[in-house]
Amino acid sequence: MVYGFFGYVRNLPDGSVEIHVEGSEDRVDAFVEAVKGLREFDIWEVELVKTSVVGYNDFVIVP
Description:
3-stranded mixed sheet
């Protein structure tokens, strides 16, 4: 499924993952629900923080 949003995903030094997502509220909500439903990974907690829109043009994996 294509979610139609922009932003990034990156691994943090403490082992957690940060995902910054920009897009329509319904698409972002669908993405969050998909992440929560992943069974291949040990997801213990999902914390949502609303921030200002940065204006990304793509969705990238930050090394």
